[in-house]
Amino acid sequence: VVTGLIVARILRLQVDAFRERITSEVMTGTKVFVMPGGMMKSNGSLVDLIEKVKPEIRTLIEKCNTVKMWVQLLIPRIEDGNNFGVSIQEETVAELRTVEGEAASYLDQISRYYITRAKLVSKIAKYPHVEDYRRTVTEIDEKEYISLKIIVSELRNQYVTLHDMILKNIEKIKRPRSSNTDALY
């Protein structure tokens, strides 16, 4: 009986020593500071820029949509004969559609930036010891800044191009077919 108690006590001491060793190894492992405060914040400068650029993109989309509808409503019914003005109208509508689509793609690009950055930040949380993930966040932010500069330039270029196209062809857009029937004979 005494021998059984001694064996049980030795086993209990061994188990307790094992638990203590495992617990101390877990607690004294390599310290990893993932994100102070528990959250990695967005790049404030980029968020401010994005919040300024997005309304400009939306405005371009809305204006293109309005002008496109105006030109489409001016297109006369299909007839034989003088359709040069109608082709100018159709070309204008096509250009407006293209600009509208490109502007919408800029909004998608901004959304993709946030999604890509979020995935990367979650990888940083999962693998905090990999420095390349942290550097990639900076690279993505720099790339987005350059993309925003390009987007703003493109918005300007699209406004200028549309203005030039419409201004040069305003008479054909308003009246695609001349009412001067004497010139035909």
TrEMBL record:
Keywords: Proteasome
Gene Ontology BP, a term: regulation of G1/S transition of mitotic cell cycle
A single GO molecular function term of this UniProt record: endopeptidase activator activity
Keyword Cell membrane: no
Domain of life where this protein originates: Eukaryota
GO cellular component: cytoplasm; nucleoplasm; proteasome activator complex
UniProt xrefs under Gene3D superfamilies: Proteasome activator pa28, C-terminal domain (1.20.120.180)
Domain Proteasome activator PA28 C-terminal: 40-182
Family note: Belongs to the PA28 family.
Name recorded for this polypeptide: Proteasome activator subunit 3
